[in-house]
Amino acid sequence: MVSQGSSPSLLEALSSDFLACKICLEQLRAPKTLPCLHTYCQDCLAQLAEGGHLRCPECRETVPVPPAGVAAFKTNFFVNGLLDLVRARAGGDLRAGKPACALCPLMGGAGTGGPATARCLDCADDLCQACADGHRCTRQTHTHRVVDLVGYRAGWYDEEARERQAAQCPQHPGEALRFLCQPCSQLLCRECRLDPHLDHPCLPLAEAVRARRPGLEELLAGVDSNLAELEAARMTEKEALARLREQAARVGMQVEEVAEGVLRALLAQKQEVLGQLRAHVEAAEEAARERLEELEGREQVARAAAAFARRVLSLGREAEILSLEGAIAQRLRQLQGCPWMPGPAPCLLPQLEFHPGLLDKNCRLLGLSFEEQPQKDGGQEGAGSQGGDETSSQREDGAKSERHGGIQPQSRAGACTPKENRAQTPQEDGAQTPKEDRAKTPQEDGAQTPKEGRAQTPLEDEGAQTPRGGRSNKKRKFKGRLKSVSREPSPVPGLNLEGSGLLPRPIFSCSFPTRMPGDKRSPRITGLCPFGPREILVADEQNRALKRFSLNGDYKGAVPVPEGCSPCSVAALQGAVAFSAGARLYLISPDGEVQWRRALSLSQASHAVAAMPSGDRVAVSVSGHVEVYNMEGSLATRFIPGGKANRGLRALVFLTTSPQGNFVGSDWQQNSVVVCDGLGQVIGEYRGPGLHGCQPGSVSVDKKGYIFLTLREVNKVVILDPKGSLLGDFLTAYHGLEKPRVTTMVDGRHLVVSLSNGTIHVFRVRSLDS
């Protein structure tokens, strides 16, 4: 894409997809330009026309079809000129068969002419050596530019050939367009000039372009200014979203730290509060995502129109510029008149509130509050004024709370705002705190902020109420509140944690990119699997590579793949690697030697691959059933999950805890997660509201049999028990998930998550009873 404000080169226009139809993906044929300045083949537009209208496939703008049909849309002379140049360059292969001279047959010779070695840029003819020498010696053609044919085909003379191109009159073949009729705004050749435009004031094309170019450039400058405003608005929206995520991450960590010491007593309330936090973040992200999509869509439409206008003004001939001048001007005015800048949406930052009391089991110890995010142009950082009754100390406390993570211990005398983002453990509770480093009791100072500002645990705060480390049994009332939550977390139908009593939780380990210096494109990770001790194998479909990384992000090299293969799903077996690519299943050695390949069904776009727990067999999903191959490439077994062929498994993983070979799959046909035994009988299936209406994605299983399911559309990884019942959310947006794509489990303890941008996050799965 041409950057804003820069002029595109002829080489960019010829080598990019500018000359390709976005409908048929072939080179443009009979190009027609819509009022939105997008160009397509005439036949392709005819297929889209319906009821006198058609929608542009790129900007989705509805365009009325002229009464005469799509043929009446403006012919894009600019694109036609570039296509003529491309066809002339590609016309004939010098290695397969030499092109013939165009003049030899005209001189009375029998058959075709001799082999061409030169080309006249003015006549656009291929010439043999003799005709080329004679072409330079005649009165009429001695000024013509004759160049070497090999160099012409290589593109050395594109600029000169472009300068000598002339738009041909559609009414009078062989006549070039030379004039512009000012009253009719029509391009004329010499024949058209005589009748019926003889009495009309006409201008030569060069003079007409000089007169009209400033107006187009002024309109283009206005759209460029709007593009700058759109880009600034998009960056502001992203920064606000980043601040929200950062604050949510801090609050989430504080929730974990505060709840760690008293987790068993507070588990139910902790899950509720984290759910509220996730719901708020998801709601805010959804609103921000919609605004970003709107801004990016407007920016893309304006940028495409500006790029087209810039190309025409930079590379177009006079006739081409004037032909498109009306459409370009109309579109640029339309874009300038559009409302570009929607007002900023209020963003409420979450604040955690917790009560220091522990003995009252009915006390709600955790809660959330939200404050509106301050704008950049505001006169003061922190929380704004909340009304005439608010005191200055309350505003100061609110500002401190927002700056330092928002966790607020509650007390009768008032809220103490911590300054340091850590929570004191229960073991620190018994130690006496120095006066300058501890929160004063209500008897000392009713609502004073502690100077060290730690988020105290209930045990510590309870001890701090009695001087000299004494205990107080006084219960306190919790003043928690929650505002502006519009979405609920994944519903949890009762906790059934297989005897552990607690859900696993994630501990962030590291994050690293997968793009390597030799990659030509941005990575598109379509498969992950464990590969040796503390290593993973990454299938990068975009760069046609299988990359090895350690869990710390160190690059360990690549497993060579057959030429032309784009690995999709991947699984590691005993001394071999299996992967699917297109409609084939491959088994290769670690050094890239192909052991065998098997053809799969063409009716399925991608095939999920998984290694069986024994490590000597590989399973692959094929059109509603699962096929299992041994190391020699023989089909060991084949079964249909649930006995029905109407399932489409897009992800597959075996339960290492099951000796019967139970497996889990994401079923896109039924929009569910299915758990089957080794014979394909369904023993559990989930298709409830916890999927949020999304298609289930990648699945992984830990050492205890818990299932981790990826929901890409809502930026979540949810957790299910070994029988397929939903337990709750495991990872969400405030863990850094943005369009998660594929996951895998390493050593049963490390969940590896790949994002759509090629980044990999590693989380340690911690059982809270460990």
Automatic annotation (TrEMBL):
Cross-referenced PANTHER family: BONUS, ISOFORM C-RELATED, E3 UBIQUITIN-PROTEIN LIGASE TRIM56
GO MF, one annotated term: ubiquitin protein ligase activity
The enzyme's E.C. designation: 2.3.2.27
Main location: cytoplasm
The protein's name in its UniProt record: E3 ubiquitin-protein ligase TRIM56
SMART domains for the chain: BBOX (SM00336), RING (SM00184)
Record field: compositional bias (Basic residues): 471-484
A cellular component term, taken from the record's GO annotations: nucleoplasm
Subcellular location per the Swiss-Prot or TrEMBL entry: Cytoplasm
Region (Disordered): 372-499
Coiled coil regions in record: 227-305
TM stretches of this protein: none
